[in-house]
Amino acid sequence: GQGCVISALGETWCWGSGSYGQLGDGLVEHDGFPVQVVNFANPSRISAGYNTTCGVNTSNQAYCWGLGGYGQMGNGTNTIENLSPVAVTIGTISKISVGGAYQVCAITTGGAAFCWGADTWGQLGNGNPLADSNVPVPVTGLGDGTMSDIAGGGVFTCGLTIGGGVKCWGYNGDGELGNNTTTNSPVPVDVSGFSSGVSAIATGDYHTCALITADGSVKCWGYNGYGQLGDGTDTNRLVPTLVDGLGAPAIAISAGGNHTCALLNDGTIQCWGDNSDGELGIGDNDPDIVLNPI
Phi and psi of 289, rounded to 5°? Predict the structure, then answer.
């Protein structure tokens, strides 16, 4: 995979795997050191997904680079290797997220949700599963004035509404959509109990967590085989379940493939889930799985 940052000087730098051009420096290469993304001035946001990277500049124009065989560039092409940023054919946007199932989704400055790329499980949310799209398509029912953020999971997508509700769409075999079923959905469904009151969401490969506005608690749902839901078990949850053991109210959350972390209001960070490669930052990879925040 690849990682990317925006420097204090307003430059975008990426490192890691560049086999499809996802480092954005005009080359197909792997690089253990950061390389500067070309042709992407004044960046404001960046999202690095599975072999595809996308960003937004300060003018709210979206760009993508890297793997584009499923239409991830959003510019009407299916070019496999895109070595430098290309403009997405969409109006001004405020948020962008690259998912793990070759989908990209964005929130426009007007508060509408759009997705493009692969649609194997309905993760584009436009009601037409298996129909990949190389141009942005509107997510069903999430038009102007409805959405504030979006997060692409491994095989599904979730969005945060302006009113603090959560909606998800795509694959649901492990409860990823949080609606108390295991039925896939090519259109957004409401996450149980979350019509309001959520301030942030974070998605992993097969799970999602939400930050609760009122008290800084965190609730998670979906696949839990590595303890990434943080409820002290490895049982999948079809509806949001409270993370057990946070040392203080959370103010931010982030999810990796099979782990989750929270920044607490006392400045500390707690993580839980898969630790087989030391993902939790606790000094080693023993234990391999952590079921509660640590």
Answer: -130, 130
Contacts 24+ apart (CB under 8 A), 237-240: 237/175, 238/175, 238/178, 238/179, 238/180, 238/181, 238/182, 239/175, 239/178, 239/179, 239/180, 239/191, 239/192, 239/193, 240/178, 240/191, 240/192, 240/193, 240/194, 240/210
Question: Which residue carries 């086999």 as its tokens?
Answer: 19
**Are 273 and 234 in contact, with CB atoms under 8 Å apart?**
no
- Tell how far CA 257 is from the center of its chain: 10
Instruction: Give the C-alpha distances (Å, rounded to integers) separating 249 from 80, 89, 156.
Output: 44, 40, 28
pTM over 0.85: yes
Q: Token pair for residue 64?
A: 């993508």
Task: List Cβ neighbours of 191 (8 Å cut-off, separation of 6 or more).
Answer: 158, 165, 166, 167, 168, 177, 178, 179, 208, 210, 221, 239, 240
Greatest alpha-carbon pair distance for the chain in Å reads 48
Specify which residues 286 forms β-bridges with.
none
Per the document, the length of the chain is: 294
Distance CA 55, CA 30 (A): 20
Q: For CA atoms 11, 116, 166, 176, give the dihedral sign.
A: negative
Q: Give the model confidence (pLDDT) of 217-255 as tens digits.
A: 999 999 999 999 999 999 999 999 999 999 999 999 999
CB-based contacts of 8, cutoff 8 Å, min separation 6:
none
**What parts of the chain have a pLDDT lower than 50?**
none
Sign of the torsion angle spanned by Cα atoms 242, 246, 250, 255: negative
287 C-beta neighbours (distance < 10 Å), count: 13
Give the CA-trace dihedral at 178, 182, 185, 190, to 10 degrees: -20
Quote the CA–CA distance of 282 and 294 in Å, as a whole number.
8
Neighbours of 7 (CB within 10 A): 11
